[in-house]
Amino acid sequence: MAKKLTKIAFIYDFDETLSTTYMQDYILIPALGDKPDHFWEKANAWSRQHGADQITGSMYYIQYIAKERNIPLTKEFLAECGKNIKYFEGVEQWFDRINEYGRKLDLEIEHYIISAGIEGIIAGTSIRKHFKDVFGCSYVYGNDGTPIWPARVVNYSTKTQYIAKINKGLSKTEDRAVNEYMPDEERPIPHRRMIYFGDGMTDIPSMKIIKERGGNAIAVYRPKSKHRKTALKLLMDNRVNFALPADYRENSELDHVVKTILDKLAKERDLDVLKVKEDKKKRQIQNTLNLRGRIKAIAKKITKRRKKA
């Protein structure tokens, strides 16, 4: 019988964690006839003007501009917008390589994305195949294939509910069950076997919950950039365990840290197995002692009865 592998969850933000900038900036925003900085300035201004959540507001604003410019914002179009995304060095080779490292330790690594970006764009990326699930913003589509309503909105605070779903083994649509009680021993992936990869302030609630519950949170940043200061602040504020350059190549600092975490998880798993064996041994010894005690007690009663007789 094949040995059962221990499940580990790698959970990633997407923008500026795996990709070098926001996913919409590569194809979508240029297709809408604008430059990224100018577009986001207008989208955020619209959100403030209407008292909208920034993520919800940007989803509407993208939909509004696309309709105004007669660009069908279909699933197919969004998937095309994911094809030219640029990643940090080593990202595209990372998943197969780290999975193989995990298998050598009898660990099964499941990869997830939790992003405030558009799930439909991620669907078209070269790396989508590596993820067990993707939790991102998405639209409900009408009969003509274009958006009519937000199906899901993911922001910095709602990201944590998807961590809970991974922890409990729930699908993205199982909303009620996420708050139902489940004993820790029945949860498929405990927080201590999670690694969260993020880049900034919007990842803080997710990083914090995983770190505080025994897992590891890693703030990544573009080398030699202003993002390094943000990542180091997260480290100094005890929001993360590590602040590292977003270099996913073999033998990079990030690669070394993640492999060390996996080594530790494998050793802890092996130690837990040994402890279970020792606990079983203790119970067996105690049962034997209890049985001997009962036999002695019965023997005493028999002896007393014989003497009385």
What's this entry about, in short?
The chain is of the alpha/beta class. The chain has 10 helices and 7 strands.
Protein architecture, described:
- With 309 residues, the chain is α/β, with parallel strands linked by helices.
- The chain has one domain (6-270): HAD superfamily/HAD-like (Rossmann fold, 3-Layer(aba) Sandwich).
- The chain has ten helices and seven strands.
- The protein has helices spanning 28-31, 36-49, 54-68, 75-80, 91-104, 119-122, 159-168, 204-212, 227-236, 253-308; strands at 6-12, 107-118, 133-141, 147-152, 194-198, 216-221, 242-245.
- A seven-stranded mixed β-sheet has the order 4-3-2-1-5-6-7, with helices on both faces.
- Helix 6 (119-122) links the parallel strand 2 and strand 3.
- It is elongated.
Residue ranges: pLDDT <50 for 5 or more in a row?
Answer: none
* Count of individual beta strands: 7
Structural class designation: alpha/beta
Main beta-sheet annotation: 7 strands, mixed
> By CATH's scheme, which homologous superfamily applies?
HAD superfamily/HAD-like
Which architecture does the CATH hierarchy give at level 2? Answer: 3-Layer(aba) Sandwich
Number of domains: 1
Tell me roughly what share of residues is in helical segments: 40-55%
Shape: elongated
Average pLDDT rating: 92
CATH topology: Rossmann fold
DSSP strand (E) fraction? 15-25%
Please report the distance between the alpha carbons of the first and last residues.
60 Å
| Top CATH class | Alpha Beta
Strand order of the biggest β-sheet? 4-3-2-1-5-6-7
Radius of gyration: 26 Å
- What is the ordering of alpha helices and beta strands? EHHHHHEHEEHEHEHEH
Number of distinct helices: 10
